[in-house]
Write a structure and sequence with these properties.
There is one protein chain. The protein is of the alpha+beta class. The protein is built from 3 helices and 3 strands; from the N terminus they run αββαβα. The chain has a 3-stranded antiparallel beta sheet.
Length: about 60
């Protein structure tokens, strides 16, 4: 059986934790940040655990992670 190819864009955007969860950066951190509360911006700094539905899709894109 041939090797499976890794999707490089997903590999760069997602980190696999030791327990197997997937972490990704949050959206809404590029521009128009002046109108947001400091608390909101602070919370957006932390990476987000992907939902179970997205995890199943993403795992097929990074088969060897």
């Amino acid at each position: 059986m041939p090797k499976l190819k890794t999707v490089k864009g997903v590999r760069d955007r997602v980190k696999v934790t030791g327990t197997g969860k997937l972490l990704a950066r949050r959206a809404s951190r590029r521009h128009l940040l002046g109108s947001r509360r400091a608390k909101t911006k602070r919370q957006l700094r932390r990476p987000q655990t992907l939902a179970a539905v997205d995890t199943r899709k993403t795992r097929s894109l990074i088969p060897y992670a």
